[in-house]
Every structure is written in structure tokens, then in C-alpha cells.
Design a protein that fits this description.
heterodimer; A: about 100 residues; mainly beta; Ubiquitin-like (UB roll); five-stranded mixed β-sheet; three-stranded mixed β-sheet; 1 helix; B: about 475 residues; alpha/beta; FAD/NAD(P)-binding domain; five-stranded parallel β-sheet; about 30% helix; about 20% strand
């Protein structure tokens, strides 16, 4: 087991400016050009939504906008596919519970 | 809805190797081409480029594939090439009018030829625990790595079948990930005849050998004849159970073992994204091993509808090299028709047909070596989710089979499997396998129809922005 790996690779690469967005009101550091689920995974956050019928947790699966498992509530918009949506400064991202906005 | 905004001679759907190759032949002869793409940058999945906000300061592992395809990615600078990015095609009207959403707005484009190159997505193979966050597909993890240089987690197990798992293992290894094991479910032993035949395409054979060697030299265990049977954890993946596959192709649970990990990457092949050709009424055949619903095509990759072509993985899974050849041939065929001159590119056409033959022969051997396990469904039990969107389990589906529901559409209607946001992309293949396994002779009597929207779009994207919704 290895727990020292940095999940953001930094060899031979310069990431753009960093900024902060909010995951369930917790500030998360991200870089311009990252998707929401990319930034969350880099911070070891894997759960994106809780299913409607049996309350199972779900997260990043297909990674190309096909499966709709990584959908979250982004700035009050429901069912946003976080694997293909870019992260922006100040964005408010929330775990999506069920199929409705309450 | 918005009026027709544009007309180009040819519309291509999909910006991967297949679509770009077709565009290459056309725009270089001065034919206007609109290429509609879901991504923000050219390349599709295989040639996915690093996000432009990041700056790469020297050569990296990300260049391995891109290099050979630079002339395709450079099409972006061609004046006859119109790139319509970040767009979802959700309808095709009569007279070849493609309807898509871009920047929250519905737009239309008409053309005389349509070339569908919509690619493929990972085949969803269910097993107990496959819905836990931390279980991901090869395609998704490749995207994360190629476009953002982010690793999905700290400790990784790869389980699957075929060339894609070798590819992902190598990418992860170059990136410095901690790969615990790579599990290849096939345990086919190479014989001399196979090896000789692999020299149909020496460059690909060499690449495969290099991939295997790299893993070996890095000390990453690559185990053949083993498969993931279960993922476990409280809310996210914490451990996985692995079992060997015996000579009859069955998983031997008595010899299973548990490995602690936080990420499990599965790669059991791909599913063709043929929704568009299905929707517009091209004839298709079903072949699970080749990628599901595959359009019937001529030697020049025209479908059963005149002037509609289908190239690359959306017309059967064969990989990027074959997609490129098919794209070139379809492009040249359309070009000759537009110019009404069928002699100009004869040599070129022959060249690509011959190249294609070699690649196809190579692919056939690879398919034989990496024959997928015939027992995917033996991994599931009654509590395993089949339809991820609607939380439908295998047990739920079995109760409907007991009630004399024996075809795809009826099973879908009563169980809701395939009615969620992914529109059946994750479960349709499994549902067909379940019906076939339960000896239903009517499986294909009542097939699901694709209807617009072909992918989910917002209601607000469909209406003209001048009309405001009144609260």
C-alpha cells in the first residue's frame, strides 16, 4: 500500500492558477482546466450522489458523460455531469440525494 | 426552435480518429465540413488532448499516441473545417438536418452527406459491488489522466480483458501510480501460428510487447486467467475479491483471495455508440462481442441509407487504426461523389483498403487471444444492480421473466431498467444477455426504439431564449 502519492501529477507540467470552490460547503483547492470530479478525486472525494430508491452511494464511473453516475448539484442546478463540467472559482457543488431538488 | 443556421456539404459527428480521417480527405480537397463534437477539443477519447490551461514543458508519456496523428489534430487550422465543439446531437430530421445543443442553444445544420463517427464507450459489466464509488472504467480513467493529469486514487487494481487494460496499466505506470495488480481474464497461450500472424502489423505487435515488458520491468504483476468477482466497502471501495478462471471458463471461487485497494478499474471491452444510425433507420445486426448493435455497411462504409456513412468504433469495436482507415475510405467515397469523378483517388482508395485488410487480420488474432470470458453473468447474484440509473437488480428482472416477459422492450417497460438518464447505455447489453441466458426465443422481437432526444438535454436548451418561462 502506498499513501504518499500526490494524485495531481506535477512532473513536466505547469498547472494554471489555483482557486477555491465549495464541496458541501467545504473549500476545495482546484486548478483552471480541471473538471469538478477531477478536482474532487484529486482530494480523495469519491461520492457524487445517493440513489433515489435504495440510497446507494455512486461516483465517477464512465468518465465521459455517458453514465450519469457522477451527477451533482452545481450552483443549484440538478443532475450536472461533473466528469465533463469544468470547475470554476466559487462554484457551490453539493452531493445529489435522490432525483429531486428539495 | 431556431431556424437553420448553416449548410455544409458534409456533416461529421464525432471528433476522434475516424471522424477526423474522413474530414482530412474532404477539407484538403476544398469541401466544407462541419464536425460536431461533444468534447471541447479534437481527438475523441483515443487522442484526447491535455486541457489548454495546463502547460507541458517537455515530452511526456501523453505524447505516445498523439504524435502519429498530428496531421489530423492540425485540421483545426484548415479554412474548410468548421469545428462545432461542446455540442450534443439530439435529433436528426429528414433531409439530413442535424439538430444539436451548443452553449444552451439548439442549432440546426443541413448537409448532403452525414458521416457518423460517434465512437464507443466502456462496456458495463456488472458484478457484486460494481456500483461502489471507486469502481471505474478504463475509458474514464484514461480521460482523467490524459486531459487533467489526475490519478483516480492511491492504490489501483485493473481487471478486464484485452489491449485496453494493457494500455491503461502502462499509462498509470508512466504517471507513477501505485498499481497493485493487473488481471487479464483470458489465459490463451500464444502458439507459433498466432505469433506469425501478429506480424501482419509489426508496429502494433511491437507496441504490445513493449507494453508487457514495461509492466514486467516495473515489477507490476500481470496475471492471466484471473478476474474480479466482487468489490466491497462501506459507501466506497475498500477491498476486492479476485478469483481464477478454470479451463472450462468458470470462476473458481474456492481459490478466491481478497486484496485491499481504493480503486478498481474495469475494462471488459467497449460498446458501439450506434444510437444515431439506429435512430435514422439504418439496418443493424446485434453482436455482443463486436460491440452491440452494428450498422450494416458497404465496402465503403455507407450504411443502408444513401449518403449516410458510419466509421470507426460506432460501427463495431476495432480500435483507432481501423477507424482511421475507415474514415479515409468514407471520406474519399463522399469526395468522389461530390466531384462526380470516381477515378481520381483510385490508388489511394486501394492503399487504404489493403491497409485495412492487414489491420483487420491483426485484430482478429488479438480478439482470439483476448477472448472475453463467456460467463460475465455468473458473477452476478439477485441483489446485484443491473440498471444503475433506476436501481433495478437482477432479482427484480428475474421476477418479471417469471411473468412471461420475454423481449427487451417489454422487460424495459415493466422493470424501468434502461429508462434512466443513461438511456440504457449501461444496462441494455446485460439485459439482452440475461434474456438470452434464460432461453428467451423472443429476445429481439420487440427492440427498443431510439427517440429524440438521443441524449438528455435541458428543456431550456430546446426553447428560443426570447421566450422566458413565466413563474
Amino acid at each position: 500500500m502506498n499513501n504518499k502519492i500526490n494524485l495531481r501529477l506535477n512532473n513536466d507540467i505547469y498547472r494554471g492558477n489555483s482557486f477555491v470552490f465549495f464541496y458541501n460547503e467545504i473549500p476545495i483547492v482546484s486548478f483552471k482546466g480541471e473538471t469538478i470530479s477531477g478536482a474532487l478525486l484529486a482530494n480523495e472525494i469519491k461520492i457524487c450522489r445517493i440513489t433515489n430508491k435504495i440510497n446507494e452511494s455512486r461516483g465517477f464511473y464512465c468518465g465521459m458523460g455517458t453514465c450519469w453516475e457522477c451527477t451533482m448539484i452545481v450552483n443549484d442546478t440538478h443532475s450536472v455531469r461533473t466528469c465533463i463540467t469544468l470547475c470554476k472559482p466559487g462554484m457551490k457543488v453539493k452531493t445529489q440525494i435522490g432525483n429531486r431538488i428539495d | 426552435m431556431t431556424k437553420i443556421t448553416n449548410h455544409t456539404e458534409v456533416t461529421i459527428i464525432g471528433g476522434g480518429p475516424g471522424g477526423l480521417s474522413a474530414a482530412y480527405e474532404l477539407v484538403n480537397q476544398g469541401i466544407s465540413v462541419s464536425l460536431i463534437d461533444e468534447n471541447s477539443m479534437l481527438g475523441g477519447q483515443f487522442l484526447r488532448q491535455l486541457t489548454p490551461e495546463f502547460i507541458k514543458n517537455k515530452k511526456s508519456f501523453l505524447d505516445i499516441n498523439i504524435k502519429e496523428y498530428n496531421q489530423l489534430l492540425n485540421l483545426i487550422n484548415n479554412p474548410y473545417f468548421i469545428y462545432i465543439n461542446n455540442s450534443i446531437v439530439w435529433n436528426i430530421l429528414d433531409e439530413m438536418v442535424v439538430v444539436y445543443v451548443q452553449n444552451n442553444q439548439t442549432k440546426l445544420i443541413s448537409s448532403n452527406y452525414i458521416i457518423v463517427a460517434s465512437g464507443a464507450y466502456d462496456r458495463a459489466v456488472p458484478f457484486p459491488g460494481w456500483t461502489l464509488p471507486g469502481v471505474m472504467t478504463v475509458g474514464g480513467v484514461l480521460n482523467l489522466l490524459k486531459s487533467q493529469l489526475i490519478l483516480p486514487g492511491k492504490n489501483i487494481i485493473v481487471s478486464g480483458n484485452g489491449a485496453l487494460i494493457l494500455l491503461i496499466a502502462n499509462y498509470l505506470n508512466y504517471a507513477g501510480a501505485n498499481i497493485l495488480e493487473v488481471l487479464e481474464s483470458s489465459n490463451h497461450k500464444l502458439n507459433l501460428v498466432d505469433i506469425i500472424k501478429l506480424f501482419y502489423v509489426p508496429s502494433l505487435f511491437k507496441k504490445g510487447i513493449a507494453f508487457r515488458l514495461n509492466l514486467m520491468l516495473s515489477g507490476i504483476p500481470y496475471k492471466t486467467g484471473e478476474i474480479i468477482v466482487e468489490a466491497k466497502g462501506d459507501k466506497i471501495v475498500e477491498e476486492v475479491i479476485i478469483a481464477p478462471i478454470n479451463s472450462e471458463g468458470k470462476t473458481d471461487l474456492s481459490r478466491s483471495r481478497t486484496v485491499i485497494t481504493d480503486i478498481l478499474i474495469t475494462g471488459f471491452g467497449l460498446t458501439s455508440s450506434s444510437e444515431i444510425t439506429q435512430f435514422i433507420g439504418c439496418e443493424h445486426n446485434y453482436n455482443a462481442l463486436k460491440g452491440g448493435w452494428i450498422p450494416i455497411r458497404t465496402k465503403c462504409f455507407e450504411t443502408t441509407i444513401k449518403n449516410v456513412f458510419s466509421v470507426g468504433d460506432c460501427a463495431g469495436i476495432k480500435g483507432s487504426d481501423i477507424a482511421s482507415c475507415e474514415g479515409r475510405i468514407a471520406g474519399i467515397t463522399a469526395l468522389n461523389r461530390i466531384k462526380n469523378n470516381f477515378s481520381i483517388n483510385k490508388n489511394k482508395l486501394n492503399h487504404f483498403q489493403n491497409k485495412l485488410k492487414k489491420y483487420n487480420n491483426f485484430q482478429n488474432i488479438i480478439n482470439k487471444i483476448y477472448l472475453p470470458p463467456n460467463n460475465y453473468l455468473s458473477l452476478i447474484n439477485k441483489n446485484t444492480i443491473i440498471c444503475r440509473c433506476e436501481d433495478v437488480t437482477y432479482g427484480d428482472l428475474l421476477t418479471y421473466l417469471d411473468q412471461n416477459i420475454y423481449d427487451i422492450r417489454s422487460l424495459k417497460s415493466v422493470s424501468r431498467a434502461g429508462m434512466g438518464k443513461c438511456q440504457g447505455r449501461n444496462c441494455l447489453g446485460t439485459i439482452i444477455s440475461i434474456l438470452e441466458q434464460n432461453n428467451c426465443s423472443h429476445v429481439f422481437d420487440n427492440n427498443p426504439n431510439y427517440r429524440p432526444p438521443l441524449k438528455p438535454v435541458l428543456i431550456s436548451d430546446l426553447i428560443e431564449k426570447e421566450f422566458k418561462v413565466i413563474d
